[in-house]
Design goal:
Order of helices and strands: HH
Shape: globular
Number of helices: 2
Distance between the termini: 31 Å
């Protein structure tokens, strides 16, 4: 098991999306296609997630999907496992 995507809950990212200083990994999630350090300049995790879901929650790399019975709602539950939540370097932490 790898790192969890804070957008879609995919739990096999190779790198932590942001390090402890908030520096981005520039990894692209194989599931939702969010690129850390690029897409976060235009979207919050929530707005990107909403758009991804409204477009059918399509996989960027379908071959990495482990099952035909994959369920986006179940995968999204992984997001609560992220502690603390990743904070991109260009956004100050919320008080």
């Amino acid at each position: 098991m790898g790192y969890i995507c804070p957008v879609c809950g995919y739990e096999e990212l190779e790198k932590q999306p942001y390090d402890e200083k908030g520096n981005e990994s520039f990894e692209i999630c194989e599931c939702c296609a969010f690129e850390f350090g690029v897409d976060d300049m235009l979207y919050t995790f929530e707005t990107y997630r909403k758009e991804w879901l409204s477009n059918g929650a399509k996989w960027l790399l379908p071959a990495t999907k482990h099952s035909d019975n994959w369920n986006a709602d179940e995968q999204l539950k992984n997001i609560v496992k992220i502690k603390p939540m990743y904070i991109p370097y260009n956004r100050p932490p919320k008080p």
